[in-house]
Write a structure and sequence with these properties.
By secondary structure, the chain is of the alpha+beta class. It contains nine helices and twelve strands.
Length: about 280
């Protein structure tokens, strides 16, 4: 669709826009599919007078997306990320551990399909998943680092604590009843190392490694690096076993890594091969 020039835009009625601010400036046109898609992308750039105005605009935009059969995957994920990031900044008061730490990362298997099926109700799934993960992390003595879209990142001072949290969370996921009787499956990856600390997060190769380990697993599975396995073994891992999955090349990492699946009472044992190639 051709872009509207200022004169054409000025001629549109207020109802063609998702929001009119206190200065009378009209924003986010949503009278056709092209404008709805543009509004979804630009929504996060708009300054609203208050949260009530923002929520009214958000609902108008979601309703318009529904009318034109547009699945707002990125919009919903972006809103969740912004809200959670703000909450983390406001709530964080405990300094994150440094040095040798164990990183736990998760994401939801098939999240795009869930968003397409649930639309705005996907928020309920995310809230349920994060509640389970947060409870498991806190109970194991860990620290939440970041939660965005369908991903969750926590850190622990002891490898065993991270594995305990992962096992507890997976058990909760298996026993949880979800909206519309959906099956929500979360994959978990764990790696121990020496990431570089920032004020509110971690960066570096070890962080990337934890992310890659999470990405190659399957929903319901807990995959760990050899570093984590050795650390857990050193703390008498009662009730936890490790199944060797072989040496694998992970995207963006220079060397192949030995990976293991965590086995514990109540967890599934059979999964497809990891979503990567084995090292020769």
């Amino acid at each position: 669709m051709p872009r509207l020039d200022p004169k054409e835009r000025a001629g549109l009625p207020d109802r063609a826009f998702a929001y009119v601010d206190s200065h009378g400036q009209r924003r986010l046109p949503i009278h056709d599919p092209a404008h709805v898609r543009n509004a979804l992308v630009r929504f996060g750039q708009v300054t609203f007078e208050d949260e009530a105005a923002r929520e009214r605009a958000r609902m108008r935009l979601l309703n318009a997306a529904k009318k034109f059969k547009i699945v707002p995957v990125g919009f919903i994920a972006g809103q969740l990320q912004s809200e959670r990031a703000l909450g983390q900044r406001e709530e964080r008061s405990v300094e994150l551990p440094s040095g040798f730490v164990t990183m736990l990362m998760t994401d939801i298997e098939g999240s795009t399909a869930l968003v397409q099926q649930l639309g705005a109700r996907y928020r309920d799934v995310i809230d349920g998943v994060w509640t389970i993960l947060r409870n498991a992390v806190v109970d194991a003595g860990g620290h939440e680092v970041e939660a965005r879209a369908d991903e969750f990142f926590a850190v622990f001072e002891a490898p065993r604590a991270a594995v305990d949290a992962a096992v507890a969370a997976q058990r909760e996921f298996l026993g949880r009843s979800w909206t519309d009787d959906l099956e929500v499956r979360v994959r978990i990856g764990i790696h121990s190392g020496y990431p570089t600390s920032t004020e509110t997060n971690y960066i570096g190769t070890d962080v990337n490694t934890a992310s890659r380990i999470c990405a190659v697993g399957h929903g319901g599975q807990v995959v760990v690096s050899a570093n984590t396995r050795e650390g857990v073994k050193a703390s008498a891992p009662t009730g936890v076993r490790f199944r060797a999955l072989g040496s694998h090349r992970l995207r963006g990492l220079p060397e192949a890594m030995l990976l293991y699946q965590v086995a514990a009472t109540g967890l599934p044992t059979q999964f497809p091969a990891l979503r990567t190639s084995k090292a020769g």
